[in-house]
């Protein structure tokens, strides 16, 4: 099963949309604020929020930047 990490910050409306979407689909994910954990933001090359990373082991399978339901659906369906 893929591991999903969502990089977000608290006052970000698109971040909230991504959370609502994933919650409604019953998808579990980790939430990371890149300002609180900059080393992880650097590791995953996160430059903006929201950024959703789908991992297979340590390999990044998908990277979705912003709220893009079609891309999220495709990434989680695999």
From TrEMBL:
Pfam families: Glutaredoxin. Residues 7-58 form the Glutaredoxin domain. It comes from the Bacteria. Gene3D superfamilies: Glutaredoxin (3.40.30.10). This is Thioredoxin.
